[in-house]
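Researcher: Next entry in the queue.
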Amino acid sequence: AGLEGPRAPSSEESRSTTGGMARWPGSLVRPLRSGLSIARGSIGGSSGGGGGDSGGGDSDSGSGDAPVALVLTHALGFSKECWAPVLEDLAPLLTRRVEWVALDFSGHGASTSSPPTGRWDEYHVAEAREVLQSELRAVAPASRTVGVGHSMGGAVLAALELRQPGSLARVAAIEPPIFPAAVGRLARLLTSAGLNPLANAAAQRRRAWPSAAAAREHFGSRMAAGWDSRSLDAFLGGALRDAPGGGVELCCDPATEARCLGLPLVASEVAAGYDGGAAVTLVTCSASRFSPLLLPGSGPAAYSLVAQTLRAGVVRLPGASHHLVVQEQPALVARLVADEVAAIV
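Model: Structure for this entry, 345 residues:
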């Protein structure tokens, strides 16, 4: 099955007004009444590669032919467009139809709703729940709905499922920022004292550039130096916007990013009241420098500790070299998503 819509357009396609920033075709993207922005499409199976709403998703006969719903959530500071290369690589791996939706959390991408000022996890969990109910429940029941989230997005989906088991059939949370109690509470103390290094660095992050070309040069030679080229296009197209005074700027205000980083999730709090029944898997990258213990190289061991508290599974993604695996190795993430979809019977 092909995929016509949800891909990162080539350099000749879908330019922004400032030029050089790839965007998803407008037919895939629409705002919700709450101010959130989503992209939605259908791939695999009998979808014929179309990117828009298929409708009639519950008309297939037999569970093997019925569509699987997929919700994709992005990392802090990114946008729904980050999933475009993954979806492009996912399409040929599928043997059944998948109705997918990717959302911009408030304060990110094209969403116009106000960003959270307090517990970002509760705020974003409510947004993910809204999208599930409004966009996917008519397509497939919860028992046939898969959630895949990266970093912050993975934490949001894991928290949603742990707080309301049965909201999703399966959750794959790629290196979510869910911390052991001692580490998370220490980070909060540092935040209250103005000494949290991650939050302080985010607050000082550069936000604006005189042109899209300047932004491309900035990210291409720094954060995105090891990314798949499609991922850089997707980032520029979704995580940046035209600035009111000219040039481009980050959609996610560095102050919003700093607030989120200053309020890390604690595993015991995420799992509070949970009595089992959720199918959550924490996905750790084999060579990632990210770790809930804040010690480079300790990620796999740290996620084993977090998983015990959450009563979740742990998968070590072989060949994944960095926390930003979605951007660096979208084909590898596509295989992970395909395996999650194939597990739905």
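Model: The CA atoms of residues 26 and 321 lie 33 Å apart.
Researcher: Noted, moving on.
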